[in-house]
Every structure is written in structure tokens, then in C-alpha cells.
Design a protein that fits this description.
259 residues, alpha/beta, Rossmann fold, 4-stranded parallel β-sheet, 6 strands
Length: 259
């Protein structure tokens, strides 16, 4: 996300101007500022990669993004409602730029149902409080999942699951920025799955399905890597604990105390 916030070296405009554009686009629904940001970080190599994925489908894509935006201050019990409309224009600008460059159209059917905002949730809270979606799904054209920034990918993963459950197909997922300013895989890789089962044991699939609602194999690669890194960092602090036991305790703390 350093690129979008305007605090990274090598931008094509002044860092101060980029930072102002980010604030206007992210929090004030300024579409002009959002388009400036998208153009600033646009990578034609990524555009080509998306085109390659769409060539397999042979049909014009539909670009879909998680919206409307939700108040970051929402209580985790979900009592706060949605804003009247989105405030973050960056995903819309990203989708518009993709449609202009590649072709296709932006979806106007699928929206998020009311739920808590995720921007200020910690990573374990995000596992328990996940978004859901409503809206008609096209079954004859591929979807491209679009967002402004990628953290763990849980929101896009839930959106993908909704589309697939309704008979739709996913060509690929793309985001403009990552906190570490690098490309990351979306779906769980075999290497990460193997490491996850090595660290937590073969029962991680059953445990995760009971605790969260789906098998560990359906995590995003970023989610799986986070769980591996978390256990490795906690292991030395909790001598005698098994990984699944400690993970169960952590999720229970989140559920019962919200932290």
C-alpha cells in the first residue's frame, strides 16, 4: 500500500501530491483523484497477464469489486449500518481502467450485505467476521475480481466463493497494491498448504472447517502464510502447547473478547 499512499520513492508525481490524491480517493470518493492514482501505478505487464487469463475463457469479462464501503468504525457486533454510498473510489477507478484497457464491463449487480468494516479489524478478527454478498450472478462470462489493496485476501475470497456457488466462473483476481509492494499469489499454493499441515498437523483442515466454516485448503495464500508465521512466532513463548491448541485458544479469545 506504500505506492497508493504516496510515500514511496520513484512515483511519477510529487509524493505530496500523491498523498493528497490518496486521501481524496480513499476517503472522499474522489473519482478523478482515484484515476490519477491508478494511472500512476499502472503496470502494463500485469495488464498482459490478465489478458492471458482471459484468452482461455474467450469471452469479454465482468469486473466485480467488493462494495459498498462500510464504516471503519462499525462495532464488531454489526449494529452499525452501511454508509449511503461508497467512499473509496480507488477500486472503481481500477475496474474502470481495466475495462478501458482490456474491454468488458463493470458489474452492477453484486454488492456486500451489511457487516462490520474490515479495515481496522486485526487479522484474527477478519477470520471470524467475514463479509457476505447478494446479487445476480452471470454464468456465461468470466469475472475478474478487483480491489485497491491486498492484505490477506479474505474479502475477495468470500466474493469468489459467492460467485462460484452461484454458477459463475473466476478468471483471476487483481489489486493495485500490497503492503510489501510485491506480487503475491491469491489461491493457496501447494507449498503453503504443505507447510501449514506440517506446522499444525493434518487435523488443521477439520479444525478450520469447524471453527470458520471451510477447509484450510480454501484459505488464500496470504492467510495460510500468516497462520504459519504466527505459530512460528508464538511457539517459543508457549512451550508444551500444540499449534492447534494455541490457535483454538486465540480464536476463542477473539470470539469472546473481540480482540
Amino acid at each position: 500500500m506504500a505506492v497508493l499512499k504516496g510515500d514511496q520513492e520513484g512515483l511519477r508525481i510529487k509524493k505530496s501530491d500523491a498523498a493528497k490524491a490518496y486521501q481524496a480517493a480513499k476517503f472522499s470518493n474522489d473519482m478523478s483523484a482515484a484515476m490519477d492514482l491508478v494511472d500512476m501505478v499502472w503496470d502494463e505487464g500485469k495488464e498482459d497477464a490478465i489478458i492471458d487469463r482471459l484468452m482461455d475463457a474467450g469471452k469479454r469479462p465482468i469486473y466485480v469489486l467488493p462494495h459498498p464501503a462500510f464504516d471503519d468504525e462499525d462495532a464488531i457486533d454489526g449494529t452499525a449500518g452501511m454508509r449511503d454510498g461508497p467512499v473509496n473510489a480507488i477500486p472503481f477507478a481500477h475496474a474502470a481502467r481495466l475495462a478501458e484497457a482490456i474491454g468488458g464491463e463493470i458489474d452492477n449487480e453484486i454488492t456486500q450485505k451489511a457487516r462490520v468494516g474490515r479495515t481496522k479489524l486485526n487479522r484474527f478478527q477478519r477470520f471470524l467476521w467475514q463479509p457476505s454478498f447478494v446479487g445476480d450472478i452471470s454464468t456465461d462470462r468470466p469475472y475478474v475480481l478487483v480491489d485497491d489493496a491486498f492484505t490477506l485476501g479474505g474479502t475477495l475470497a468470500n466474493l469468489a466463493s459467492y460467485i462460484l456457488a452461484g454458477g459463475g466462473t473466476i478468471a483471476c483476481a487483481t489489486a493495485l497494491a500490497h503492503k510489501a509492494a510485491k506480487d503475491v499469489p491469491f489461491a493457496l499454493t501447494q507449498d503453503t498448504l504443505y507447510t501449514l499441515k506440517t506446522e499444525y498437523g493434518p487435523d488443521i483442515d477439520r479444525f478450520w472447517k469447524d471453527a470458520i466454516g471451510h477447509e484450510a485448503a480454501k484459505l488464500t495464500d496470504a492467510e495460510g502464510s500468516f497462520l504459519v508465521d504466527w505459530w512460528r512466532s508464538e511457539q517459543s513463548k508457549h512451550d508444551g502447547y500444540e499449534g492447534l491448541q494455541l490457535l483454538r485458544n486465540r480464536l476463542l479469545k477473539v470470539r469472546d473478547q473481540g480482540e
